[in-house]
Amino acid sequence: MSGPNPLKLIPSVDKLLSSDEFLNIIAEYGHVRTTRTIRAVLHDLRAQIQIDESLPASSIVDIKTLVAASMALSDESSLKEVINLTGTVLHTNLGRASLPTAALEAVVEISRGNSNLEFDLAAGHRGDRDDHIEAILIELTGAEAVTIVNNNAAAVLICLNTFALGQEVCISRGELVEIGGSFRIPDVMEKSGCTLKEVGATNRTHLKDYQQALSDKTGLLMKVHTSNYEIRGFTREVSYEELASLGVEHNIPLLADLGSGTLVNLEDYGLEHEPTVQEVLGAGADVVTFSGDKLLGGPQAGIIAGKKTMIDAVKGNPLKRALRVDKMTIAALTEVLKLYRHPEALLQDLPTLRYLARQVKDIRELAEAVLPAFEAALKGIATTNIVETSSQIGSGALPLDQLASVAIEITPLAKRDSALVALSKAFRELPIPVIGRLQDGRLLFDIRTLESSDTLIRQLPGLDLS
Ligand SMILES: *Cc1c(COP(=O)(O)O)cnc(C)c1O
Description:
It is built from 20 helices and 15 strands. By secondary structure, the chain is α/β, with parallel strands linked by helices. A seven-stranded mixed sheet has the order 4-10-9-8-7-5-6, sandwiched between helices. A four-stranded antiparallel sheet has the order 11-12-15-14. A two-stranded parallel sheet has the order 1-13. Helix 12 (about 275-280) links the parallel strand 8 (about 255-260) and strand 9. Pyridoxal-5'-phosphate binds near residues 152, 156 and 224.
């Protein structure tokens, strides 16, 4: 061995901390955190030297840079804004609905300081957080009463637990859905303390199947809107009306899980019809549940609407305390609901609906406006074109409804899978990551959900295509 032992070149923690070089770093990050980070960096350096004794002294001189970079990196938020150009408007992995400005402003205002979240200002005593949102939900749904919880999965869980604990719940075999992640109706049924009573066959369920399934153990009839698939061909399902009258006959309530749920007739906006909350309640369902952040276009929430006695029972369930929503949700949801009072302006004010209803010619115009920026950024690397594609609603809503759309298509000149993978990674590594979809050897950016072309264009020269 020649030369000095490189381990000896590593300065001590104390020496570094007291050096002038570290004054700024300590001022920015604090003494405790800087000390801890120096220790970690020195530990890594020693480990490297153990492996490679010839490690040049120069690689250990810039400990200061290593320490500062390590702390700056760990300060970067892992949760960040992305530009969703996947073609799936309500993408669960990308945070579903984009909130309207009024909702964002309400969140900021209510969260900055204190609020009357559970305080009745008129009476001067404790209030109920649901009171802030129940009236407008009653107005819009026509239900006798409404309450909200953390998401629709929680809504289903607490309804089952409240209405049918220790009892059987009759549900069609064709509706035993899995909603992605780990939300499967049979599993939720078990966790809520109910026994699943499967009715009929996967493709066909008749009213007489429900009649036969009823017993003195039955606590609830349930219908789940099979929102992420459709059974086609030789099929038969029992309508909400039929089930509701069976329930009335036997004094058993009907719970309808609508999944997405909408408060407006989507046909008015050029989309396929999806049963509205008002229709299903009108058809006789005692309680319906639906999501706040799917077609409704609001924050994550589960809305439970129906008969007053049943909603009161949900509110009285101790699980409600565990599943209750935060003030930020109430603030945002209230603003989103207010937009539904003016359906003619919804298209303009509610981003989710605006994206869903966007006309192909408008999407094409936007695509043409951003194309030159893609061409310039990818010159010599890939060809760029405008192509027709189809988007989908996502989050299980109207699964078979494909929306005609327009995409920027990027085909790498090097016809290798690895080139395509590298390209899509480069877009994901932009300051505001841009997420597209890979299809048939091309990278597609569906322009339907592009909000700001400036934000997109400004970033493209920064693509790392090395
Ligand atoms: C999406 C969905 C759920 C779960 O709703 P979250 O708001 O994601 O918790 C439950 N049931 C149906 C039918 C759904 O489509």
